[in-house]
UniProtKB/TrEMBL annotation:
PROSITE patterns: CN_HYDROLASE, NITRIL_CHT_2, PIPLC_X_DOMAIN. It is an enzyme of class 3 (hydrolase). Its EC number is 3.5.5.7. GO terms for molecular function: aliphatic nitrilase activity. The keyword Glycoprotein does not apply. It holds the Pfam family CN_hydrolase. Belongs to the carbon-nitrogen hydrolase superfamily. Nitrilase family. The gene is nitA. This is Aliphatic nitrilase.
Amino acid sequence: MSRIVRAAAIQISPVLGDDGLGTARKVCQAIRDAAEKGVKLVVFPETFVPYYPYFSFIQPAFRFGGEHLELYERAVIIPGPVTDMVAEAARDTGMVVVLGVNERDFGTLYNTQIIFDATGEILLKRRKITPTYHERMVWGQGDGAGLKVVESAAGRIGALACWEHYNPLARYALMTQHEEIHCAQFPGSLVGQIFADQMEVTIRHHALESGCFVVNATGWLTEDQIRDIARDPALEGPLRGGCFTAIVSPEGKLLGTPLTEGEGMVIADLDFALITKRKRMMDSVGHYARPELLSLLQDRRPARTVHYVGEHGATGPVGSSNDEAAS
């Protein structure tokens, strides 16, 4: 029997220059707007709260120290006020929410994806395993503990951020866990049209290869925001284009019209019968796999900086309190 879940990919602009909660409030309003349209799963852009560090793409590292520190001050503690707000909105609307945030864990920032169930419970907090290029000056590295699929009210969900989709083994790790919906997040308003073109190829290919739906959300910057971030007309160009908010079926088909400019949401009904239809022909982690020839080793142990030895010689990993609270 078929099961249908209505999903929305949100293209939206952040709130800049406030205490960091303005963007979170905008997220909660978008969740409620989507709920009025019957949506049960909503996906927001990469590190959307409080905002993606666009400054790091257009400035050399020695110049953006002040802006980096501002991001620290506005970053999200998990759990904390932002996650409480979003959890309440998810619970009130019965919505599964996938949100990208800049997470602060004491002295380090991380590119983090949070999956909230329809009850408001945090099902997964995962960190981007390798920040890309300029991002390495902003965020720390994640670990394999977050490369997992979770059972939610909307189905089996996996998530990756941006160029993690160019790591085939990271994608395969999720595929082996039989994800039904893959939630992809990109910053948007970056690089130009070529970024949007590459994004389309990437998410459509993953849908075909995994035999799952892909819900992809990108951010959006207004012209005023571009001017405020760039501070120099010569630096504004790299902050335009690169938006491709879309939903893809397991057959690689775009469901609805992708959003490449402005704010809005792409909504589609995900018919899970299409997953079986696709995998009957090609199941890359089942009857189409050759595990005796090719296999993947995944280390899912959380990265820890210290291991304490107990009184009787037993060892146990010890991490930060923020990690423990959301693990």
